[in-house]
Amino acid sequence: MTAALEPIVGRYVTLEVAGRRCRVYFEEAGQGIPLVCLHTAGADGRQYRHMMCDEAVTSRFRVMAFDLPWHGKSYPPEGWQDEEYRLSTDLYVETVMTFCAALGLERPALIGCSIGGRIVLELAHRHSDRFRALIGVEAADYQEPWYDTSWLHRPDVHGGEVCAALVSGLVAPQSPSLHRHETLWQYMQGGPGVFRGDLYFYRVDGDLRGRLGGIRTDLCPLFLLTGEYDFSCSPQDTLRTAGSIPGAQVSIMREVGHFPMSENPGQFRQYLLPVLDQISAAPVRTQGA
How many other CB atoms are found less than 10 A from the CB of residue 62? Predict the structure, then answer.
């Protein structure tokens, strides 16, 4: 039997975020334009492994997916045992910008899904001049809560299994069984209270309604891709959000749900590759140009 090595390489980098040291794990593959990937709530960077093994992507892009502190193979910051994890908008933005700076990334492209898609909108609002392009997957300025978060961190309940059960309905019925269950397995492995802590940003602190004026899509193109089967961030949510951002480009993806890059990577690439074509072909724009 011949072993087939994937091109993905994993490393650690120590960041100082909000005045605290964090040992952060990231994986990368490919070469070319830096493309930073942000995972969904309660999960980790493994969601992007299919993109990292796709030569149509990695022949032009240096793809990097990092696990937020508290997630995946990253560690919580020092002193974590004395606090409850809660992700805020400012903390999320600082973490992303610190990672990019630590790796010396100049005007990278960035893609984020779910909470990662929401923070893409905030990054477009605050830092359009720092990115080459932004891709929000399952992104909207706000979604109405549809479940009780008290179940997500209880000593009498397996939090990972509850999280996986909760999000299982967000996977499209057409998604292959292998990828569906791989996606859910990542949720089963989440740390105690981490999914709930991410949802503080998603449901409380990250309400962006009325806060997205002035986004410079002429300076940093903004692409919004949403699955037709996503009832958490519905196509209507994304279209409503895009309506307030002149120049935002929207695609509603057929036969995918809330986790396109992991639940059905073959279908997702049909929508992703044209976006990457635009990014790789466009000149880098600068403020005032």
Answer: 18
Distance (Å, whole) CA 276 – CA 128: 18
Domains of the chain: total: 1
Domain assignment of residue 287, yes or no: no
Q: From CA 251, how far away is CA 272, in angstroms rounded?
A: 10
Q: Read off the CATH number of the domain in which 16 is found.
A: 3.40.50.1820
Give the bridge partners for 65, in sequence order. Answer: 27, 37
Residues 117-169 pLDDT 10s: 999 999 999 999 999 999 999 999 998 776 677 777 888 878 889 889 889 99
What is the residue-averaged pLDDT of the chain?
94
Find tokens 């309660």 and name the residue: 42
SS3 helix, strand, coil % of the chain, rounded to 5?
40, 20, 45
Numbers of helices and strands, H then E, in the chain: 10, 8
Q: Is residue 2 part of a domain?
A: no
Q: Which long-range contacts (CB under 8 A, 24 or more apart) does 148-152 make?
A: 149/196, 149/199, 149/203, 152/193, 152/195, 152/196, 152/199
The answer for residues whose C-beta is within 8 angstroms of residue 121's C-beta and 6 or more apart is: 136, 139, 141, 208, 212, 215, 241
Of 115, 25, 100, 101, nearest to 70 by C-alpha is 25
DSSP secondary structure letter of residue 132: S
Where helices occur in 149-259 by DSSP H, the ranges are 159-168, 177-188, 194-200, 235-242
What are the C-alpha distances in Å from 22 to residues 83, 141, 268?
15, 28, 32
pTM of the model: 0.95
